[in-house]
Amino acid sequence: MNTELPIGPKTHPLDREMLPEDPLELQAFEVPGDVEIMFRMVVEEFARMGWDSAAIVELGRNPFYQALHGLWRLHGEAEFRRRVARIVSRSGVIRVREIIAPPPGELLQIEAGSS
Q1: Residue among 56, 29, 52, 26 nearest 42 (CA)
Q2: What is the C-alpha end-to-end distance of the chain, expressed in Å?
Q3: Deepest of 1, 68, 75, 109, by most Cβ within 10 A of its Cβ?
Q4: 35: closest CA among 74, 86, 78, 88?
Q5: Cα 47 from Cα 84, distance rounded (Å)
């Protein structure tokens, strides 16, 4: 598989012509780098979106999530679960609760005048 990116001027996706042979699908491929840093960053990102350890491990089992699934295959179920739990215990999981205030009562028009 050719993983080289085409060289040419950069253009914003909205400014590019839509071509039939470009299905606008995300393409994943391996790049060199530190696997441990990637593991930590991906897990922390999901934790920041509110995912707990169990949900992140479940994503790792799913081949659709290629980065996490590759790490799950690399480490195996037990080690993957242990690493995710360790990362989440250090970073925490962000929880957000939204409270929608009731609409205000009657509004009064205040006119500013010159005195």
Answers
A1: 56
A2: 78
A3: 68
A4: 74
A5: 10
What is the residue extent of each domain of the chain? 32-91
pTM over 0.70: no
CB 48 within 8 Å of CB 88: no
Distance CA 9, CA 33 (A): 26
Token pair in block for residue 114: 């010159």
Helix (H) or strand (E) holding 75: helix 66-75
pLDDT tens track for 80-110: 999 999 999 988 887 778 888 888 788 777 8
Chain centroid to CA 54: how far? 17
- Rg of the chain's alpha carbons, rounded to an integer? 24
